[in-house]
Amino acid sequence: MIGVLSGLGIFTFGYAEGASYLSNDPQACINCHVMEDYYDSWQSSSHARVAVCNDCHLSHHPIGKWVTKADNGMFHSIAFTLDNYHKPIQIKARNRQVTQQACMHCHEDTVHEMLTINQDKDPLYCMSCHSDVGHAHNLPRTTVDPTDPRRP
Question: What is the count of structural domains for the chain?
Fold first, then answer.
């Protein structure tokens, strides 16, 4: 039984191009067709020349990076395989915080005075005003089934 499970795990890792997710290459993100439009819009964004997916979507802390990568990898693989995810894709609270910290990592010198200091208020996230800086959101492929005859 252990051999069968090991073999299945190795096959799945290979079939899903698992090793590519260990890299910093943005093309790893488009192993899953769901991400193609996000990748395409990132390529035409202002950040394409200065940041890759991991720069914005993973912690800059060496251990935090791998924890987030493993956590997201597991949940993404389950959600995308079972087609069980919100359409359009929405960032979860934990990942919103990771992305906020990534914004701060690169832009701290210019935005440190804009952050909410009052603990009673909701934090002001960079993405609140700059939601399409890294890539577009609410893209058609993720919101409408392309085979749907009602598609615009």
Answer: 1
Task: Place 141 in a pLDDT band, splitting at 50, 70 and 90.
Answer: very low
**Among 132, 135, 64, 50, CA closest to 97:** 64
Q: Tokens in use for 64?
A: 């935090």
Choose between 114 and 141: higher pLDDT.
114
CA distances from 14 to 17, 58, 64, 98, 117 (A): 5, 23, 25, 28, 47
State both tokens at 88: 């359009």
Compute φ and ψ for 64, nearest 5 degrees: -60, -35
Side-chain-side CA neighbours of residue 139 (13 Å): 18
pLDDT for residue 121: 66
Asked if residue 48 is part of any domain, the answer here is yes
Handedness of CA 108, 113, 119, 120 (dihedral sign): negative
Tell me the longest C-alpha to C-alpha distance in the chain: 58
Q: What's the half-sphere exposure (Cβ side, CA atoms, 13 Å) at 16?
A: 17
112: three-class secondary structure by DSSP: coil
Question: For residue 57, which of 134, 130, 141 has the smallest C-alpha distance?
Answer: 134
- Residue range of the domain that includes 16: 2-143
138: number of CA atoms within 13 Å, CB side?
A: 2
